[in-house]
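1st attempt posting a full record on here, be nice pls
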Amino acid sequence: MPIRRLPSHLVDRIAAGEVVERPASVVKELVENSLDAGARRIEVQVTGDGTRRLQVTDDGCGMDPAEMRLALERHATSKLPGEDLLDIASFGFRGEALPAIASVARFTLESRPASADSGWRLQLDAGTWLYDGPAGVPPGTRITVEGLFERVPARAKFLKAPRTEIAAIADVVRRLAMAHPAVGVRLLVDGRRLIDVAPEPAHLVEGERVTGLARRVQALLPDGADMVPVDFARADLVIGGLAGLPAASRATSEHQYLFVNGRPVRDRLLVGALRGAYAERLPAGRHALAALFLQLPPADVDVNVHPAKTEVRFREPARIRGSLVSAVRGALEAAGIRPVAAASQSLAAAFAAPAPQPGLSAPLPLPHALEGSVPAPAPAMSEALASWAPAGRPSDSLAWAPEPAPARAGTGFSLGVARGQIANTYIVAETADALILVDQHAAHERLVLETMRGRAGGPPISQPLLVPEVVALDSLACDCIEAAAPQLADLGLEVERFGPDALLVRAVPAALGTPALKPLLQDLADELAEGDGPRALSARLESIAATIACHGSVRAGRSLALAEMNALLRQMEAVPASATCNHGRPTFLRLTKADLETLFHRR
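the predicted structure (as tokens):
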């Protein structure tokens, strides 16, 4: 078959296949054009699922008739000041969106510069010109798209249910509205208002950008109360926004909003970095809620690697990943130990009393077993607990003797003082204004892990063995562990090669007590063998440390003395990450005095 030039209308439809995947794609391109035009207010109107009618109206700079005609030619754009494709500070720089959309729909473009006395209108139907003349329109630009994909029925067959398409449109508008707090955005679907946010004050956009971004995100998401601010700056890289608390996670990653230089992206590097930032804080299958904004020089990021510009490529990916992980982890740790509002609300709902039953006019008597009975104090805790004694006190000075409970809750402790234990699993504590329930295994699991990492009151404590133990393994396993010996020593596990098929263990993490060494080393070797390079090893050691910590923690079902419970609470207060266990589950829940009064109908 001879080579031939494709006709222009077919070229436009091929371009439409790249950038116009669904109605949400059209909305994305048109709203981005409005933002590039300097709009301060943008309104999106949708009819049906978006294929019947879409309209985007803005108050931007507008266009004169000549510019309007030029905008409908392929590869014509006002958004590339030079020829450097890496120095791009605008959205729709390819110049393909408008002609591509006009080739698969009935397209109306109306615009008027603020300095002009009247506006102009262009109308096309599947690329065919219908009208080119004056029109009475306000300053700005209005684009109407009707009958999308009527001339391309094959593409229409791949659209999803109307509700799904509307959700995709709302997601696009929400993401763009998040990144531009200075712009008011409204989305109407069949006359129903789905999104309506006013422009943020100028001082919150220019002088206090993180505050402005946080306010806009909280206005667009219902979970703002369970998020903490992120404010990170290093050299020419700035990361701001909000990161969700671990227990406010979602079942999918759809609620992760990532932006690079104001551009919404779905980049695998950033998603992976966010997942790494929440390592050991989220259970498998759960995804963090986050809205993070990265600002860096345009020359350091390539936004021209995808037709829809949803993926980017960084010049220094390792630096970007490491900075994002540090920014999010720092924000979570700076937030300190705090309960998650959603989890505490669920607790209050679970305790809510049912409606009174007819015939029950008096409360039921208490069982005799509960009248004046006080359980005897538990025996002393094992040596494993001594390794995480509060900073400033030697571990051997902690005498786990029974002590009477204080008469009043200590006002200086955020987790209060212990009052008792339920099912030998949950610690009940009291603060000045709240009731605290603590999962003892989950809490101690996190403390052991942070101790091994050196984040809980000093470097990890390594316990030398009185007699070093020889562990026989195959040579490949020995090679893996020998290569990782310096990193394992940072966790408190000191090993060295002892012949071709054996290792000599000289010390173990003090928090573990006396673990079975051969299964432990075998598991370490298996995990280390799967990685390659220092980064893989470092990431794998995080998982290894979490696994070791889980097996070395106080188990559920163990009876604790009040002194032991209080020591656990004090150590939790000293470790900001202790609000969740290594698997992302909450370690404690909080019922305020107001919650209790509500439950007992006292207010």
